[in-house]
Amino acid sequence: MTHGSRPAPGFARNPERKITVAPIDGKVVAKAGDVVVAASTRAKRLEEDGLPPVVYIPFDDIAFANLERTDTRTHCPYKGDASYWRLCIPNSPGGDAMWAYEDPYDEMRAIKDHGAFDTQRVRVETSG
User: Fold this and answer.
1) What number is the average pLDDT over the span 103-108?
2) CB 15: neighbour CB atoms within 10 A?
């Protein structure tokens, strides 16, 4: 990982922490019910010590017409500040369904302009 003008304070405090981001071979489809909210052949898998893997899909491959930004914000000392979106399709579960680090720390630039879906609200499937 390269360190630039905005290094993550989490890695400064805990340099042994491992977070990797790698391309996913094949196609990733995210669905809420029967509605496709994202489909991509350019998705990435983020793996972080002690946590399940998370799929990040490029913004260009996400159907933002099916999402609405919420006021929810969280902070990760390794990735930065996350923004959230909820589903705005009929019969969709409530709550935040997608998050993204729109201006991540230097070490996590690979997930900039990518969204990740809450798998309790959206089915994320990989094929290929």
Assistant:
1) 97
2) 8
What's the one-letter identity of residue 5? Answer: S
**76, burial (CB in 10 Å: exposed 0-12, middle 13-18, buried 19+):** middle
Q: Which CATH superfamily is domain 9-127 in?
A: Domain of unknown function (DUF427) (2.170.150.40)
Predicted confidence (pLDDT) at residue 80 exceeds the cutoff of 70? yes
SS (H, E, C) the chain: CCCCCCCCHHHHHCCCCCEEEEECCCEEEEEECCEEEEEECCCEEEEECCCCCEEEEEHHHECHHHEEEEEEEEEECCCEEEEEEEECCCCCCCCEEEEECCCCCHHHHHHCCEEEECCCCCEEEEEC
Identify the band that residue 128 occupies on the pLDDT scale cut at 50, 70 and 90: confident
